[in-house]
Design goal:
This protein has 2 domains: 178 residues, Isopropylmalate Dehydrogenase, CATH 3.40.718; 132 residues, Isopropylmalate Dehydrogenase. The chain has 11 helices and 12 strands. The strands form 2 sheets. The protein has a 10-stranded mixed sheet, sandwiched between helices.
């Protein structure tokens, strides 16, 4: 198995090495190769990502991705959005679980407000929200495939205001009905509140691109913040795994970042691409063991750094392998 490793910018350069070490301990058969993309590369070369890097990423069996900075500039195109679109990583899985709840947010990953159809003129700016039948059907089918027996999916939308969401809602309902999966629906603004008040009500939530992005960030409050949430970007041929958090330039290089999201992203890589659920569970078991000993990063109320927490998790994994 060949895994492309993209550290990216900011804290990606600190947390991804921890995740890579965990994979090396658990699966020494994996072949890793680095790919450099991101804002730092753009500052140095004038190119954040080129066709050559895209070909390298496409050649991998899986991609372990850090975080990339996207400045608010009219001339800078988001690296991760381009990768998602060009590798057709249409399903973004963002799991959130805790005491009494286990939620999978299924976010359409290639359309909507992140379609890249935009223009800026002298006195106006326009971003086109593009929702297609193909994109809506396949993300709805993906979500239905994750629904447990006798469970339901929740369709998050804003169909009372947006005609594109009327379209999305109708397609999701049709796909769920055809699959024999029960469904409920909720306006996305109300859903952002209800998921915080009653997370146990939800299992699989399917929604559009930007709504899914916002909803998963909101749901991070349930588990202690963005430093704990992983994600998988899946397509029919390619897969990329990354923490939900961004590059966090304000804390980059200070040994403050929480590597749990990156470690859990590595676990998702093992489960979804290596079909190694046992190894994936070992990562989560090691994280829980380290936290139970009171080894916590500062965002969780502790005083340990990225390196120190990461070293503890790696030692725990090595102990599991020996025993």
């Amino acid at each position: 198995m060949r895994v492309a490793v993209v550290e990216g910018d900011g804290i990606g350069r600190e947390v991804i090495p921890v995740a890579k070490r965990a994979l090396e301990v658990l699966r020494p058969d994996i072949e890793f190769f680095p790919v450099e993309v991101g804002y730092g590369r753009w500052e140095r070369t004038g190119h954040a990502i080129t066709d050559d890097e895209l070909r390298e990423l496409a050649s991998a069996d899986a991609i372990l991705f850090g975080a990339v900075t996207t400045p608010p500039s009219p001339d800078y195109r988001s690296v991760i959005v381009r990768i998602r679109k060009e590798l057709d990583l249409y399903a973004n899985l963002r799991p959130v679980w805790g005491n009494g709840f286990d939620i999978m947010i299924v976010r359409e990953n290639t359309e909507g407000l992140y379609s890249g159809v935009e223009k800026i003129e002298h006195d106006s700016a326009c971003t086109v929200r593009c929702i297609t039948r193909r994109g809506s059907e396949r993300i709805a089918r993906f979500a239905c495939g994750l629904a447990r027996p006798n469970a339901f999916i929740t369709i998050g939308h804003k169909a009372n205001v947006l005609k594109s969401d009327v379209f999305f809602r109708e397609i999701c309902i049709a796909e769920a009905t055809a699959a024999g999966v029960a469904w409920k629906e909720c306006y996305i603004d109300a859903l952002c509140l209800d998921i915080l008040q009653h997370p146990e009500r939800y299992a699989v939530i399917v929604t559009t691109n930007m709504f899914g992005d916002i909803l998963s960030d909101v749901a991070a409050y349930l588990v202690g913040g963005l430093g704990l949430l992983p994600s998988g970007n899946l397509g029919d041929r390619h897969a990329l795994f990354e923490p939900v958090h961004g590059s966090a330039p304000d804390i980059a290089g200070k040994n403050l970042a929480n590597p749990i999201a990156a470690l859990r992203s590595a676990a998702m890589l093992l489960e979804h691409r290596a079909n190694d659920r046992e190894a994936a569970h070992k990562i989560e078991k090691a994280i829980n063991a380290v936290r139970a000993r009171g080894v916590l990063t500062r965002d969780l109320g502790g005083n340990h750094g990225t390196v120190e927490f990461g070293n503890e998790v790696i030692r725990e994994l090595e102990s599991m392998i020996r025993n």
